[in-house]
Amino acid sequence: MAGTFEILETEKLAPEPDVFRMKVRAPLVCASTHAGQFVIVRTDDHGERIPLTLMDYSEAEGAIEMAFQVVGTTTDKLSRLREGDCLQDVVGPLGRPTELEGLGRVVCAGGGVGIAALYPIARACARAGNEVRVALGSRDREHLILLDRMQALGVPVDIATDDGSVGIKGFVTELVLKAIKEWSPQRVIAVGPVPMMRAVSVVTKQHKVPTVVSLNAIMLDGTGMCGTCRCEVAGETKFSCVDGPEFDGHQVDFEMLTARLGAYKEEERESWERFESVASDYTGSCGEAS
After folding, report:
1. Which of 46, 66, 100 is nearest to 282 (CA)?
2. Contact, 104 vs 186, CB < 8 A?
3. I want to staple 243 with a disulfide (CB 3.0 to 4.6 A). Which of 74, 238, 279, 290 is the partner?
4. Measuring CA to CA, how many Å separate 189 from each of 57, 108, 283?
5. What total number of domains does the chain contain?
């Protein structure tokens, strides 16, 4: 229905590579959303479908919030939309919600734009009565997103940055290892770039701490029909959209995941170059994005 998915707020969270927050009116989506789930959005009639993890949702407002990094044509289009514009489609909630009950001590580790996806998970874990510690990794202070929201959860928040501009100088894996040695967590939940999730999984496997990762596989329909998001977990083919997006980090074939994520790099580059040649003319309106 044209006009249903009106953009209520937009905000730039971090500089290049640019990260944005977008709040969208989607009452039917947020009414049944749980932590760990995602939506598939389309900007206009000619746009591709891309998955975006839900960083927040309010049934009272009838709105969802998403965060995205500008890495290609569709995210570039999204970054150019403003309050009052509309998305063509928002489908969801999709995927399996995060397991929350009876986890005990949980380290929620996030890196880069994955911090936005981690936020509702950390919040839900705490609300479910678990003991939660948050470990965040970022390039520098400027790229550390949602720190205020994480700190507002009232749980310990540790930070690592590549340049040491905030927190320790190092990586989120160091924070996870420190928590393992000092706190003996019963689960680690890691959300972020594939190398970060892989590195965390290596550390936790060495110390036999169960670990969940959220896979950012390429997706198309989000219903398990197309098979685009297939991945290998414990030697079996799984579909991120319906079997995940969360899986046992100790069982994920990260090499295959990395290879599949790079499968369409050339096509993505060509698409973005074509869009940039006409990007100045791109506008969004409810039901009529050009």
Report:
1. 46
2. yes
3. 238
4. 20, 5, 38
5. 2
Distance CA 201, CA 101 (A): 22
Token digits of residue 213: 């990762």
Q: What is the separation of C-alpha 28 from the centre of its chain, rounded to a whole number of angstroms?
A: 21
Do 228 and 215 meet the contact criterion of CB atoms below 8 Å apart?
no
Distance between CA atoms of 203 and 219, rounded to whole angstroms? 28
232-290 confidence digits (pLDDT tens): 999 999 998 898 899 999 999 999 999 888 878 888 889 998 888 888 878 766 644 33
pTM: 0.91
Q: What single letter denotes the amino acid at residue 114?
A: G
For the chain, the first-to-last Cα distance in angstroms comes to 17
Number of neighbouring beta carbons within 10 Å of residue 280: 8
Same domain flag for 139 and 17: no
pLDDT digits over 200-211, tens only? 999 999 999 999
CA–CA distance, 117 with 110 (Å, rounded to integer) = 8
Instruction: Give the C-alpha distances (Å, rounded to integers) separating 109 from 114, 115, 194.
Output: 9, 8, 13
pLDDT computed for residue 285 by the predictor: 60
Same structural domain for residues 255 and 121? Answer: yes
In a domain, 290, yes or no: no
